[in-house]
Structure formats: C-alpha cells, structure tokens
C-alpha cells in the first residue's frame, strides 16, 4: 500500500491508470476499442501504479467498459449534430485521435495545465481527426470556468459536455454548482457523466481511497437521488445505461459478477446497492 501512496502524487496521476487500462485492452485479441497512443501516455509509471493497486485486476472491466460506453454515447451524439464536444477533466483521453469524428467538429479538452502539457509532449506530431483545442484550467476555480463556459457557449450551436471519471472527486455541493454553471449557456445541450450509488461509492472508497496519497482528492460523490440529483440543476436524464449489464453482454465479467448483472435494472434511488450508470442528460 505504501508503494501506491508514493506513486500517486496528485489527482492527475489517476489519468495514468485510465491510460494503462486502455493500453491493455488494445493489446487483447478481442479488444473493444483500439488506442494506439495509450501505452506511450501511460509509460512505466502507469503500469507501476496499476500493479500496486489492490483492486486493479478484478476491476479492469469497469474501466474498459466505461471507455467503451462513452465512445458509443459520443458517436451517437455526433451523428445527431453536435458541433462542439467539451471534455472536462480530459486527462489523457485520446478520442480526437483514435475515433472517427467529423473534421468540422470543435473538440475542447479542459484540465490542469500540467497534465495537458504532458499530453502535448507525448502526442507531438500526431494529427487529430477534428479541430482540437486544449485549455489549461482548474475546474474548481468557479470564476474561471464560468468565463470559459460563456466563451465556448458563444461558439457552438449544439454542444456536448462529458465528464468521464471526474465528478466523483467533487462534493455534492461542488457538483451542484458545476451542473448549474453548465446549464447557463443555452447551447450546452447534452451532458454525459458516470454516476455511482452511495453503496458503490463506499466500496470504491474502501478499495481506492487507501491507495491515494494525501495530495489526491478523495472519492466523494455518490448521490442518494441517482440521476434525479441533477434535475433541480437544470439537467434531465434521458438515457441511463448500465456498465454491469454492458460488461455481461460483452463477456467481461467473472462468474460472481455475471450473477449480479442478472438483477433487474433500476435507475432511481439505489441506497446501499452497488450501482453505476453512464448517463446522458439534456438541458431543461
């Protein structure tokens, strides 16, 4: 455990984990997606972090299926005419390089300057499929993010926001404020996010928080209300998909997890039930 604590220095280092899982998935014969840049981005430290995590191997399916499901949602929204995609907490995401996107699409990545500079260096010379911009910004800085959202909103006709593996590090009040800020620009029409129940959050805190150093934000957000948490903030859930059931369909689960996947799907209040969903919201 001390090894993991020394390896993860800040919240941006968790992006190395995501890159490792994408790289390992890419190397499978039955890969659900191919990210030819992930191995370079993860580097040796990414593998060291993943190998030091007590939950790493048994939870690989969750990281991989989340990526797959976001890919599906984003592709569908692009087909439905979004002209801008904004990736908040972009980390080491490579979708502008590895997925089929319209050349005219505006793709904006927002994250801390350090992680974006690292990605710029690793991907120097690579050509994205669309018009890609990177904005170095601390999204906990409310004034700065509101200014950015207003600027981006004025450049789009129909904008898709997505936050992958990101808002779980926010408190409920911080998520509520972010959701309200995202609802302010009229052109911010859709938002994709991943959500955990209070029961799943407690399991994640037990398995992951002990592996994070003091410099990394703890896992905090798992609302009792489920997707309905966002309705008073101006966002209505219009499509909620189960990673567990998706993983079962794709044959990525252990026997015990396959049994859990047989439980009826429920997208409302979950309480102690370990539940997660990839959710598409529409601005009200």
Textual characterization of the structure:
This protein has one domain (2-283): Vaccinia Virus protein VP39 (Rossmann fold). It has a 7-stranded mixed sheet. Mean pLDDT is 90; it is low at 1-5. Helix 2 crosses helix 3, helix 2 packs across helix 4 (60-79) and helix 4 (60-79) crosses helix 10. The longest helix is centred in the N-terminal third of the chain and has 20 residues, at 60-79. The protein has helices at 2-7, 14-26, 38-52, 60-79, 95-98, 113-122, 142-153, 172-183, 198-208, 243-249, 255-261, and strands at 84-88, 106-111, 131-136, 159-163, 188-196, 235-241, 276-283. The chain is built from 11 helices and 7 strands. With 284 residues, the protein is α/β, with parallel strands linked by helices. The radius of gyration is 18 Å and the shape is globular. The N and C termini lie far apart (45 Å).
Largest sheet: 7 strands, mixed
Strand order of the biggest β-sheet: 3-2-1-4-5-7-6
CATH class category label: Alpha Beta
Spans of at least 5 consecutive residues with low confidence:
1-5
Average pLDDT level: 90
| Class computed from helices, strands and strand pairing | alpha/beta
Fraction in beta strands: 15-25%
Distance between the termini: 45 Å
CATH architecture: 3-Layer(aba) Sandwich
Rg measurement, Å: 18 Å
Order of helices and strands: HHHHEHEHEHEHEHEHHE
Number of strands: 7
What portion of residues is helical? 40-55%
Number of helices: 11
Overall, the morphology is globular
**CATH superfamily label:** Vaccinia Virus protein VP39
- Examine the coordinates and then state which fold CATH places here, giving the name of the CATH topology: Rossmann fold
Domain module count: 1
